[in-house]
Here is the input.
Amino acid sequence: MCRAALTSREPRMWWKCLPLAFGLSLSAHLAHGQNLILNPGFEELEVPCVGGPATFSSLQAWTHPVCSENVSFAHACSAALGFPTHGTPANLIGYQEPVDGLGYVAMYTYDRYSTFPPSYYLTGPLLVPLDGGTEYCFSLHVSLADQSAYRTSYLHVIFTEELPNSCNGVDTLVWVHDAQVVLNTTDADTSSWSLLSGSFVAAGGESYLTIGNFVGMLDPDTMYFGPTTFPAQRAMYYIDALELRPCVVAVEEYEEMTLRTTYDPGSRSLSIIGLPKTNWNRVVLLDMAGRMVTSHPGRLGSVQIDVSGLSAGFYIIQAVAAGKQYSTRVAIF
Here is the structure.
């Protein structure tokens, strides 16, 4: 277990259907340097924000364990549609700008007057299973909500091979001891975001992460701030911008991280910028089954791809040169 200090619905299962050979290739190229958490900034929606507020069930990839409750979701589109309680930056439990983008989640970690309070956990699949013996670095941004009457001291993060369930108290009896990362939230406040981080060595095969207060809502380490106008006396935190990467990457893998993309949904065009200055053979776009969708000659600077004929979803961009492949994942909608 790593104890880290403060530093400043059933998920869609398409990813499990990847062919084994492509999965191994994806692991080799994406597991080094790239963020392994799907939809890490809570921006990608399964259902468009139209006619009602965005809900947690509309988020791509994210779910919650069996026998627990899902966290809350806030997005700027909700406020724009006339549902300010679910919006950003202002919402029912406070005010906070997203770290990046338009959305974030809110998690309850303590409820003072609930006799049998439910557990609120956040679970998601990883892009690829973790490699055994590799040290991974995890981080997230957290902010205490303005309407919090309490503060709790820790968030736990556990990585598992299968979609977890918290039935029969396994969360407070087992997870609290098995969590690979424990983040100290003592100094998180309402004024800004705090970056929390920790590291751990993977056993191998971990394919899901789950975040929450595994101590349990009835007996956590808390601090009381005083009453608020919120109808329940709770500890409530905003969470945004998650990252999981190997802690050590090779020199050429830092080049992979320079690949940046921008997507214009109006023109349905995808721009790849910041290509390393070398003699690139080509830039290819793959679907999540590993099939090549389109290929473009490589060149210095940037490449623009017309994706108007493609279905919405996730794709992999690979820039290929001298037998090396530098990859990143993009969402087209």
About this structure: The two ends are 39 Å apart (CA to CA). The chain is about 10% helix and 40% strand.
